[in-house]
Amino acid sequence: MTTSTITPLIMAGGAGTRLWPVSRDSMPKQFIRLLDDGLSTFQATLLRVAGAPFGRPIVVTNNAFRFVAAEQMQALGIAGDIVIEPERRDSAAAVAIGALLAQAQDPAAVAVALAADHVIMDIANFRTDCAAAGAIAATGLIMTLGITPTAPSSAYGYIEAGASLGAPKASRLERFVEKPDEATAQGYLDRGFLWNSGNFVFSVATMLGELERFAPEILAGAGAAIEAAKTDLDFVRLDPDAFGRIPKTSIDYAVMEKTDKAGVLAASFDWSDIGSWDSIHAVAVKDEAENVLQGRVVAIDTTNSLLRSDDMLLTAIGVKDIVAIATRDAVLIAPKSEAGRVKTLVESLKKQNVPEATEHLRMYRPWGWYQRIDLGARFQVKRINVKPDGKLSLQKHFHRSEHWIVVRGTAEVTLDGQVSHVHENESIYLPIGCTHRLANPGKIDLELIEVQVGSYTGEDDIIRLEDVYARS
Predict the structure, then answer these.
(1) Rounded to whole angstroms, how far apart are CA atoms 352 and 354?
(2) For residue 438, which of 155, 159, 392, 446 is within the disulfide window of CB 3.0 to 4.6 Å?
(3) Residue 142 in 3-state DSSP?
(4) What is the pLDDT of residues 305-330, one digit of tens each?
(5) Residues 66, 63: Cα–Cα separation, whole Å
(6) Cα separations (Å) of 25 from 22, 106, 307, 357?
(7) CA 230, CA 378: separation in Å to the nearest integer?
(8) Which of 382, 364, 370, 358 is nearest to 453 (CA)?
(9) Phi, psi of 229, deg, nearest 5
(10) Which helix (H) or strand (E) holds 11?
(11) Beta partners for residue 81, in sequence order
């Protein structure tokens, strides 16, 4: 059996709190470089589906990440359709949206739904397996990519395969099983169960038919959100009212656990959902002591551990089987065996309104990024980086004045309608209430230090008058 081009549907809207403090709501794990290949997992996913048998990807992501997704795609030279979810609605909504868009391009389309935060090293076998699953999917089945377990894990759901479909490694899907305890998981391994990767290959006609059959409210909401969608720069912005009415559930619950059209292909490739720091340790390159050392790290007599620092020097002596993660504003230390409890920790931090639970010191924007250096009563100091041709909104503040000191590049500053250029080691003062804009007209990144002084320095004291990125 053969099939035509497979449309990749890449789901990239999740939060990824299990890899805190590196991954947070403001910049989740799929857009962060976690391994030694210099790529985010989102970029690695794009590269896996670049070329045969795949076509132009459809990326579904959250509004907050749209420019990060676009920038990372551009860095790879990969074009695709970026669809913006107004809010998080889990995988059923994303699959419904992607299937409808793929059907509009080709009513006979076959698609593969992929999570953007999974790690797969064996690209050749991944493509081969997707092509094989696509050929079966074209006949009317929804094919799950099942993973042969390497250990009795309680971190994954399991799949029981049924009768053979007459193609290598392909079977009817007998049933899904929720995440078990370790003893039960061992029994599943002994009986040949597979891990559920959460990745599916299907004809869009079949998937849409099953959504109509089992989750008509999801399909109706997705259709209405697309029908009333707007084009915003290079993005498709789904209608927020219609999208907000879609029930929040996974495609597993909405369709896969109910349909009689499910199959499973036992995958030949390696796979990890990197759902915890110990799973990062499992897939990353290790030294002779089985350590994964990332960033500015020095370890003595340390074994079987993951040590990562994004900024400061991290040192360790005489420890084993631990995870130690240091960012600019938070540190996590845990036994590897307890790494799966990070999500619970983050939930606790959120209940206490700890800002580090969700926000990074460095916040990314379409024009570049800013990073808080210091914060006190009536003042805040930031480091601001603007990409070449980047331009902040024309704006004003009611509660603060600002002082910009350029340390690299040239700043084009609009101040109450007057344009001037500020060079390295020069500064400019912006009084409270003035209309101003910052832009980088140069060929290199613009870096400056911003000193804010006033009664309130929050991000919501920004009145945008004009914005090239169509932000309100």
Answers:
(1) 5
(2) 392
(3) strand
(4) 999 999 899 999 999 999 999 999 99
(5) 5
(6) 10, 35, 22, 8
(7) 40
(8) 382
(9) -70, 155
(10) strand 6-11
(11) 58
